[in-house]
Write a structure and sequence with these properties.
Layout: H1 2-6, H2 8-20, H3 25-54, H4 59-79, H5 88-110, H6 117-148, H7 150-158, H8 163-166, H9 168-187, H10 196-203, H11 208-236, H12 238-241
Helix pairs in contact: 2-3, 3-4, 4-5, 4-6, 5-6, 5-11, 6-9, 6-11, 9-11, 10-11
Amino acid sequence: MVLAMVSVLFFMVVALSNWKNLGIGKDLGQGFVMGGLQLGLISVLLLALMEWEQEGGLWIGGAVLMVLAMAVISGRRSAKRVPSMPQAFRITSISIAAGSVLALMVLLLTGAMPLRPEFIIPLAGMAFGNSMDICSVSMERIVREFQLNRGSIEAKLALGADSSQAMEEAMVISTRAALIPTIDRMKTLGIILIPGAMAGLVMAGADPLVAAQFQLVIFLMVVGGGIVTSMSALALSRRAFFNEQHQIRDWV
């Protein structure tokens, strides 16, 4: 009932979009429906995993399959940001999985994330979702840097630099651009932004100090996994930009 009443905000956005011809009404509707269905599906799957855990079942296998699905879906979504790049899906999926799994393993080994499905699946979703966003920005930015500064990169190659050295500056710029939104959110935590995890815990009755600590853990997971994802994606993309003779490929 509450969701149905709050949905008035959705119809308000659609009405304003149609009024001002913004052209986002259709996409918003599709996003709302797809998001609702996906949230419903993940809720059912998470409930099943929690029941398997209580019954002593092999819930870890189900959790691994869900994490693999997150890696594939997030990699495919990020690859769509650079449709002209060869083997973009391989680059993005490997990079997102590397950063996310590394961050989750740190949380697991330090005890910050208990080995239970109600912790693993939501945190994995946060890790993969944020790594996907960071990977998408990194890939978009590195392609743009090559297109805008192709002459400068070719000049470095002509002066004897190899492909790794020639694209180093573009990689630095792309990584910084991808991480700026996350770093800015960290700087405004608690003053402007009270993120979802902390807000949810506080509304559920948790100690605000405990909620704040948990939120910081999540942001460290996001930043740590994000920088690994960005650097991995940019490193793996080198062969997509250059051939064996360290020449820029024609698609760029």
